[in-house]
Amino acid sequence: MTSPEAQILRTVLDQWKSAVDAHDPERVASIFTDDAIFQGLHPYSVGPKGVAEYYDSQPIGLTAAYTIQETRRLADDVVLGYLSVDFTFTDRPVVAVQLSVIVRRIGDDWFISHYQVSRLA
Question: In what residue span(s) does the DUF4440 domain sit (predicted)?
Answer without folding.
Answer: 10-110
